[in-house]
Design brief:
With 454 residues, the chain is an alpha/beta fold. Helices cover 31% and strands 16% of the residues. A 7-stranded mixed β-sheet has the order 6-7-8-5-11-14-15.
């Protein structure tokens, strides 16, 4: 016989999710219908429901091993201009499942761009240039449970981006994704010289972590802004007149403010830098106003920072013009120690074979999902934690450096990179999911209306 207490909690859960469903539907239909397509409404709606559902765990699973939940709004119809329209088959299929819940399957299809041939891949991500001998880790593709995703098509993606600006803002994992996308788009060009670096010399933005590429024939740019915390790094004078670093949890990073007005798509992330010793210990580092905390737990600091980011997005971003994405935590795979304490991942050549996800769920992503669920701006949450957890084989490891630098033997005590990813590699799949989302959300709009959509 079922425990009455558990029955009460289950009923309460169902009431909560049902209420959330109708409240989200009402808010989205009233605020977004006049300006965007039915596909985008469903995609935004699905994103919000997935965010809330992923954050909501069952009463008995409050630990870090909480299940990754999903909500599937199947057979949704919406009205635009008082006319009922059907969502096309591809859009309907993609919005009826959680595209981040799946598995890696074997696939011998060639990579979108050839290993070692994209000049925009940094050496530290260019595993093939640095002598990685195996390529089997490239023979897998991400397959969501319950739906299929289109393969990345560079020509179509460039058409979606025509006349627009896509900006990645965040840490080096977002840079990983940015370089992947630039290379994927470049591969679609007949004349590879029609893409060029953006010069920031006149504006001095190059000194503030701005990088960009312009695709001349499509009059679009794909840029990256370094902002590992999204909030402002700063300095204060201590009691002895010496400067010490602080992190202003209540101030958005200044360089972000310079780009948002002419950005059509912004892809944010922050995560890995919050695991470093200084941020994790939180001693005399976190600042609000003029107050520097003697001690502040990293979770509380991260939550404050994310609320600062969310408040800024809600007050500054025009969601009828600019699409906002947030990329979740990318899994690391250090064995036998941390990144700076002998951690290793070399020798891995295949994904984890576990069919059941047992990696737990980073506390940071629970914070992200909680914050996003309270925002008025639609945010497309790219929950990549699970899909990256399987890929122990995709990191640069010792191949973050060329042979002449690391010596011939991997066992020389050098730092291994088990956080970032080889390119080509795993970030290509993130961009495939980004492409699928953009493709679906523009599917029912005439091309001339894309300026309003993106």
């Amino acid at each position: 016989m079922a425990d009455p207490k558990n029955l009460f909690l289950i009923t309460k859960t169902h009431i909560f999710l049902t209420s959330l469903f109708f409240i989200s539907l009402f808010l989205l239909s009233s605020s977004l219908l006049p300006v965007i397509s039915p596909s985008l409404i469903v995609s935004s709606f699905t994103s919000r429901l997935l965010t809330a559902a992923n954050f909501f765990t069952s009463p008995s699973s409050a630990s870090d091993t909480a299940t990754l939940y999903s909500v599937s709004p199947i057979r949704i119809r919406v009205k635009v201009n008082n006319e009922s329209k059907k969502i096309d088959h591809a859009a309907k299929e993609l919005t009826s499942c959680d595209i981040f819940d799946g598995s890696w399957v074997s696939d011998d299809t060639e990579t979108v761009y050839s290993p070692g041939y994209c000049p925009f891949v940094e050496d530290k991500f260019n595993c093939f240039k640095n002598g990685r001998p195996d390529s089997g880790f490239l023979r897998y593709r991400w397959q969501p449970h319950g739906c299929s995703i289109p393969r990345f098509n560079g020509k179509k993606m460039l058409k979606i981006l025509r006349g627009k600006r896509l900006v990645f803002v965040g840490d080096s994992l977002n840079r990983n994704m940015w370089e992947s996308l630039v290379c994927s788009l470049r591969s679609a060009l007949k004349d590879k010289n029609r893409v060029s670096k953006v010069s920031w010399r006149k504006s001095n933005l190059g000194n503030e972590g701005f990088y960009g590429f312009r695709f001349k024939d499509f009059e679009c740019s794909v840029d990256f802004i370094k902002s590992p915390f999204l909030v402002q790094e700063s300095e204060v004078l201590d009691g002895y007149g010496k400067r010490k670093e602080t992190l202003k949890l209540d101030v958005i990073q200044g360089s972000i403010k310079k780009i948002y007005k002419n950005a059509d798509i912004i892809v944010f992330n922050t995560g890995h830098w919050w695991t470093h010793q200084k941020t994790y210990e939180g001693k005399d580092y976190y600042q609000e106003g003029n107050k520097v905390y003697e001690k502040l737990e990293v979770k509380e600091a991260y939550t404050k920072a994310l609320h600062t980011w969310a408040d800024w997005v809600d007050s500054s971003i025009n969601s009828t013009r600019t699409r906002v994405f947030f990329v979740g935590y990318s899994s690391s795979h250090f064995r036998k120690g941390a990144w700076n304490a002998g951690g290793q991942c070399d020798g891995e050549t295949r994904p984890k074979q576990n069919k059941t996800y047992t990696g737990g769920y980073p506390w940071m992503m629970k914070v992200v999902e909680s914050v996003i669920s309270d925002m008025k701006t639609p945010v497309f949450y790219m929950n990549i934690t699970k899909m990256t957890w399987y890929r122990t084989d995709g990191h640069p490891s010792v191949y973050r450096q060329p042979v002449e630098t690391r010596a011939s033997s991997p066992a020389t005590g050098m730092f291994q990179d088990c956080s970032h990813w080889c390119l080509p590699g795993i970030p290509d799949s993130w961009n495939q999911l980004l492409y699928a989302t953009l493709l679906v959300s523009r599917s029912s709009l005439p091309y001339k209306s894309l300026g309003n959509l993106l």
